[in-house]
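From the methods appendix. Each design record in this collection lists the tokenized structure first, followed by the designed amino acid sequence. Records were kept in a plain field format so they could be parsed without special tools. The example shown here is representative of the layout used throughout.

RECORD:
FOLD TOKENS (398 positions):
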């Protein structure tokens, strides 16, 4: 999607928040109907029946009738698509939308194409029941059949046009690259490049810690607490924008330079889970230490380096040219002689083979093994799984 920053007036912002509330209410009501289904009941109402119920509800309640019918019906369509995606196994189960966290709505059809270019820096989009809203032309506006208005925790409004960009063409040289993802080094390329995902600076980290302490002292429901939370959200949004910018630039560069890109087949969702509590067998009702604080720091490092985002964008831009390799022992295997031993890894950054004496950066050595497809499993196999994702898929669920 191509996303642009929009700048509504105070009156337009009030109307947009009202539309977000209507879309959230309709979504949650449809989710409640779907969640109440049991085996001894009839099937839950589908989109057609829910649209009929929406018409009756708009006739009964004036606050719902004041909103856009297009926005509310599209929320029902999005929920219906989310349910189908869940049953197809491609997406997670639809969840509740919460105030301040999942604010947004989608416009589809002829109304989504009402865009006017004001000058070379600004354009305007027509939102139902709101009017023309200006947005910054940071790039050309794609030809899209729908767009989505979102409001994040940093109190920023965006419009995202649903358009699938063409994949990045490969160089045609047959070059193969391996990418090893880590915590200290975000991505190590088999060519010897060490790439780091930018985050918050030290000054920003100190300010974030200070704000978090202030937040802990604020009274629940107070306006000061709301202001501190908004300031913290802006810092997190800054880090998120930097990470996304790094992922986009890195994935585009790799897709342009290499014909085949091999990455580790990591289960990031399982790797970033919190540790399970360990009950103490000697003292019922108590628990043993499970190093949850250390695991929480590791989880933050995994998510802050954008492991999943990088591979996902590579699959979009280099469609059909991304291969996933079994990550077993890639960091312990020598890329020169193939000797595998845990003693090869002297430290986090230094690799020295005890057999041939080869010395290299540990992450680069692992990236070379990934590029060669070397992954030793328990049965000494070298499986390579090619990504079946040929083109990017638009997520139609909210």
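DESIGN:
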């Amino acid at each position: 999607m191509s996303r642009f920053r929009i700048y509504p007036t105070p009156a337009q912002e009030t109307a947009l928040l009202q539309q977000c509330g209507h879309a959230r209410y309709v979504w949650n009501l449809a989710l409640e109907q779907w969640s109440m289904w049991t085996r001894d009941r009839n099937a839950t109402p589908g989109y057609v029946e829910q649209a009929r119920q929406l018409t009756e509800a708009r006739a009964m309640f004036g606050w719902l009738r004041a909103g856009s019918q297009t926005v509310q019906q599209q929320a029902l369509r999005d929920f219906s698509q989310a349910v189908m995606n869940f049953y197809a196994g491609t997406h997670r189960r639809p969840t509740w939308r919460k105030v301040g966290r999942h604010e947004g709505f989608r416009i589809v059809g002829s109304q989504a194409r009402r865009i006017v270019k004001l000058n070379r820096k600004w354009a305007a989009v027509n939102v139902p029941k709101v009017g023309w809203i200006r947005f910054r032309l940071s790039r050309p506006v794609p030809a899209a059949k729908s767009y989505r208005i979102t409001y994040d925790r940093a109190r920023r409004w965006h419009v995202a046009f649903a358009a699938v960009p063409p994949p990045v063409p490969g160089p045609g040289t047959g070059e193969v690259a391996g990418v090893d993802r880590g915590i200290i080094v975000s991505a190590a390329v088999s060519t010897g490049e060490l790439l780091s995902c930018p985050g918050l600076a030290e000054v920003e980290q100190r300010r974030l810690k200070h704000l978090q302490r202030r937040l802990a002292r604020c009274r629940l429901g107070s306006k000061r607490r709301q202001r501190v939370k908004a300031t913290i959200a802006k810092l997190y949004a800054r880090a998120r924008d930097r990470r996304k910018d790094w992922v986009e630039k890195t994935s585009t560069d790799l897709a342009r330079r290499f014909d085949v890109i091999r990455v580790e087949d990591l289960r990031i969702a399982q790797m970033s889970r919190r540790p399970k509590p360990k009950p103490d067998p000697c003292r019922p009702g108590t628990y043993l230490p499970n190093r949850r604080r250390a695991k929480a720091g590791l989880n933050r490092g995994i998510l802050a380096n954008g492991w999943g985002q990088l591979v996902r964008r590579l699959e979009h831009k280099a469609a059909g040219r991304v291969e996933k390799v079994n990550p077993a022992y890639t960091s312990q295997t020598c890329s020169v002689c193939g000797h595998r031993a845990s003693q090869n890894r002297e430290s986090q950054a230094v690799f020295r083979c005890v057999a041939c004496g080869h010395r290299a950066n540990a992450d680069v050595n692992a990236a070379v093994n990934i590029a060669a497809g070397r992954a030793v499993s328990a049965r000494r196999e070298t499986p390579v799984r090619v990504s079946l994702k040929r083109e990017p898929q638009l997520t139609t669920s909210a």
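APPENDIX NOTE: Confidence is low (pLDDT under 50) at residues 376-398.
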